[in-house]
Amino acid sequence: MALADFLLAHAPFSLPPHLYSYIPGQTPLSTTSTVVSTLIGYLVVIFGIQAAMKNHPPQKLNTLFQIHNVILSSGSLLLLVLMLEEIVPIIWKEGLFYSMCGEGAWTSRMEFYYMINYYFKYLELLDTVFLAFKKKPLAFLHVFHHSATALLCYSQLEGKTSISWTVITLNLTVHVLMYYYYYATAGGAKIWWKKYLTMMQIIQFVIDLFIVYFGTYSHFTTAYYKSLPNIGDCAGGEGAALFGCGLLTSYLFLFINFYFQTYNYKKKPQGNGKANGHANGKATKAE
C-alpha cells in the first residue's frame, strides 16, 4: 500500500472539497486580497513585537521553538516522501519532460500536496516571530524570503505550473536539514555544517533557475516563437512562470550576498595579540 493510501485509510475524518482541491475563492488563502492582507499583517506583527521588546529582555522560548522546528522538519520530510511517491511513477512511465511540463502531471494528489506546502509557508512565518521575541536582528533577506515565498507558492497554485514539484522537492530537502539544525542548536548542540547548509540553499536556487528558465523558455518558444528550438510546451500560467523566474533569481543573488557577508572575512594585518585576538574572536563567533 502506498503511503498516501495508508494515511487516507487511517484518517480520522474526511475533508470537504475546497480543502483537498484548490478552489479559488473557497480554499483558505486563495484570493490575492487575502494573501496580501495576511502578509501585511505578518509585517505589522513582527515589527510590532520588535518595537514592544525594546525595553524588555529577550525571551528564549526554547521549548516552543524546538517544537516548531520538529514540526517543520518532520512535516517537510513526510511531504517530500509523498510528493516523490506520486511523481516518480509519472517520470518512470512518461519521462522527465512530461513530469515537469505535461498538464497530466498536475494530478489531484499533487495539487493537494502543493496546498500543504503552501500552508507550510505561513507556519514558517513563525520563524520571524521567534526572532523578534529573542531580539535578534530581522534581516531583509529573512523577512523578504519568508513573505515572498508564500506569495510564490500562491502564484503557482493559481497558475497550475506542473514544474512546481521540482522546486518544491528541492526546497523540502533543504528544510528537513535546516529545521533540524535549528532544533538541535536550540537544544545546545554544536553543529559544524551551518556553512554547508547555506551552500545547499545556493545550489538549490541554481538548479531551480535552470529548471524554471527551461520550462518558461519551452512554453514561450512553443507558443510564440516556433522557429526557435524547443521540445514542447510547458503547462502553466505565463504570469506565474515569469513571477517564479524573477523571484527565484532574486533569491539566488540575495543568498550569495549573504554567504559572502557571513562566511568570507578579509584577513586583518598581523599586529599585536589584542588585534589578532579580536579578529579571531569575531570569525569564531560568526561561524
From TrEMBL:
Could you tell me what reaction this enzyme catalyses?
a very-long-chain acyl-CoA + malonyl-CoA + H(+) = a very-long-chain 3-oxoacyl-CoA + CO2 + CoA; an acyl-CoA + malonyl-CoA + H(+) = a 3-oxoacyl-CoA + CO2 + CoA
Work out whether the entry's keyword set contains Zinc: no
Coiled-coil stretches noted in the UniProt entry, renumbered to this chain: none
Could you tell me one molecular function GO term of this UniProt entry? fatty acid elongase activity
Reported EC number(s) for this entry are 2.3.1.-
Query: PROSITE patterns given for it?
Result: ELO
- Ranges annotated as spanning the membrane: 29-49, 70-92, 163-184, 196-220, 240-260
Which cellular compartments is it found in?
Membrane
Q: Which InterPro entries match?
A: ELO_CS, ELO_fam
- Identify the keywords attached in UniProt to this record, alphabetized: Acyltransferase, Fatty acid biosynthesis, Fatty acid metabolism, Lipid biosynthesis, Lipid metabolism, Membrane, Transferase, Transmembrane, Transmembrane helix
The way this protein sits in the membrane is described as: Multi-pass membrane protein
Please classify the protein's predominant subcellular localization into one broad category.
membrane
EC top class named in words: transferase
Q: Tell me where on the tree of life, at the top rank, the source sits.
A: Eukaryota
Q: Which residues form the signal peptide?
A: none
Q: Does the keyword Signal apply?
A: no
Can you tell me which family this protein belongs to? Belongs to the ELO family.
Protein's UniProt name: Elongation of fatty acids protein
Instruction: Name its species.
Output: Marasmiellus scandens
